[in-house]
Structures are given as C-alpha cells and as structure tokens.
Amino acid sequence: MTNLLAAGRAVRSAAPHALFDAMRAALTEYYEAVDVDLLMADYSLTCLQPVTSLPHTARPLPVESSPEGRAFGSQEPFGQYVAEDGSVDLHLPVTVRGDRLGILTVRLPKHRCTPDTVEELTELAEVLGHEIVVAERDTDVYLQARRASRLTLASEMQWQLLPARACARPEYAIGAQLEPAYDIHGDNFDWSSTAENLTLSVTNGMGDGIQASLLTNLAVNALRNARRAGIDIADQAALADQAIYAQYRGEAYVSTLLLSFELATGRGRVVDAGSPQLWRQRDKAVEHVGFEAQLPLGMFDETAYVAQDFQALPGDRMIFVSDGVYSALSGAGEAYGERALARAIQSVGLLPAAAVPRALLQELASYRDADAEDDALVLCLDWFGRTDPAPDQAD
C-alpha cells in the first residue's frame, strides 16, 4: 500500500506532458518494473497507439488480435510470460468511469507478480487514466498519440465536442462511436447526469465537411446552454431551434433526438426532432421505438416542441442510430433496413455497452458501399435502474 500511495503521488504531481514518464519511473522504483508502455486507443477503436516522445514512431497494436487488445476488450488485467527471461507482462486497462482510454503494460520480474501487486497496478492504471483526462486540457501529447492518421478539421471539431465515448454509473452504462472516425462531419452525441437525472442527445447536422461541423457545434452548445440553465428538454429544443434559425434563417437545420431520464424510476421524456432513431432490446425482442415526429431544430422560426413520455425498464438496452446507419446502401443499392439492423443488435447482445457501437459499425461496414460518405453514429444505453436510494437520500 505504501508503494501504491507513493507511485500515485508521483503521477499526480507530474507535469501534464510527463505523466507517463512519471509513472514509468515510479513503477521502476517501487515495483521493480523492467519496462513500461502506455498505449492509447485510436479514434476508430481498432488499434492501440504507443505513447512515445514523437507520435507515430512506434508500431500500433491491433485491438482484435493482441494480448493488449484482449485486456482492452475484457477490461480485465491480462498477464503473459515473457519467454526469454521469465518475467511477466501485465496489460492493465486505463479506463475512467467506463471510458476506455487504453492499456498500461508493465513488465515485472516473476517474483513481483503477486495478486496484491496486480491489484495495486490495476488501481494505478486507473489513476493514470484520470490524470490523462485532466492533462488533456493542457497538453496535446495524449490526443496526438491516439491518431492512426490525420483528422480532418471537421472531425477535430466533432471529437472535441464529445463528452467521452463511454460512461458507466450504477443506474446505466453508455457507449458511443462515430464513423468514419477520421472524417466525421455532422453526427454527434452528448450526455450529462446529475444525482437524479440523465439527459442525452443525438444530433445530425445537415451538409458535409466543416459546414456540417459548425452547424452541429452550434446546436450542441445551444442545447448545453439551455440544459445548464435548468430548463426542461422541450424548452431546450426550442431555444436551440431559435439559435440555429437566427444564424441560418432556415437554410440549414439539425435533426435531433433529445431524452431525459429519472434515474430512480426510469421515467423519461423525449423530443423527436428529426432523423436519429431509437431501437430497444427488451428481453430477446428488438423493436424500433417510434415517437411523434417534430420539426428539426432551426428549420422554422420559433417552433414549439412537446416532450413525450417514455419508460425505461431495468434490463433494457437502447440503441440510438443516425440515418447513416439505417439508411446505408450496399454496393448494389439495397438499404440496410430494419430487419438487418434488428439482427445486428441481437448479435451483440452479450457485449457491454461500451463495446456495442464499434461492433455494430463493423457489421455495417461489411454491408455498405465502400465509397459511402455519410456519417454513421451508434450510441448504446444499457438501463439497470436504481435499487438503492441515492447517497444523499440514504438514511
């Protein structure tokens, strides 16, 4: 425990760009580590990029077929013996509240690889993850390391707008992904929670490239501004609608699906303002959940929006998709369609929420035309419900 505290203190006191160097030095000093590597998941979640002094100088590792990828996928420590000297490589998830950032690999002498050491190193990997999230305000080192190739400017704006790619709380787990990861345009997602509520939005700005990204940025920030003022979701939609119309005068608009859930009861309210769809898997049945369609944000001046009721039950899996998913065309011009999407959702039923979006998008990629340019967004929300009172309500 003394080693754990000392190593954690060393990382927390390091300069933002030097977190990994501090972690490597601490693990060498306190745990006799022979070698330490930090791998960051790339934007497409297909490879793990080494953090080096100069990004892209070390070989990335595939998520699908590497020991490091196995630890990343399972979110459990994975050890492998290194034949030449009998030491052990421990691959440890670097994860923050369900958001999978990467893997910390620590090579230890065999005699140091005890259950207590594995537990402490697993905790230190989580500490490193928290520090990386904070450090990204002040350094580009970790964002650069995530890039398997260069992002377009529109993609840069969209990724910086996101809250994260996953989030987990006792009441729910969320995972989301955008494709093409390095050339995304107008699709986006957002969420925020309090002690009692979860608010979630899926947006799709019309157009391509930087114009679509600018439009979506305005929409998401307008929704956030209204949400942070404590306003109901129907009025959040109305205020965002006014902001977009004032800027574009109806020449551009944003399709949006906006939801708010009570964590204690699962009762929800929904504003359906455009093309994003909600699919629900309850028990073994998968179905498209339709709502009363309302106008996209910014299409007309001073549109009034009405929230509809919705109920989430423990065990529900909710899949949100953009039109780039359900309207995707094959090389022969055939639409992906509801039946294929329902089958795909059933096929990933055993995966955790954080892994579902990438799996569905991989399935979609094998179907649709390789030259398709439309964005594709998938967000998975697993609803567990609340069985105990919130901490501030407990006796």
From TrEMBL:
It comes from the Bacteria. Residues 169-383 form the PPM-type phosphatase domain. It holds the Pfam family SpoIIE. It is an enzyme of class 3 (hydrolase). Its EC number is 3.1.3.16. Keywords: Hydrolase. SUPFAM superfamilies: PP2C-like (SSF81606). The keyword Hydrolase applies. One of its GO terms (molecular function) is protein serine/threonine phosphatase activity. InterPro entries: Bact_Sigma-Reg, PPM-type-like_dom_sf, PPM-type_phosphatase-like_dom. This is PP2C family protein-serine/threonine phosphatase. It comes from Streptomyces albidochromogenes. The lineage of its organism: Bacteria, Bacillati, Actinomycetota, Actinomycetes, Kitasatosporales.
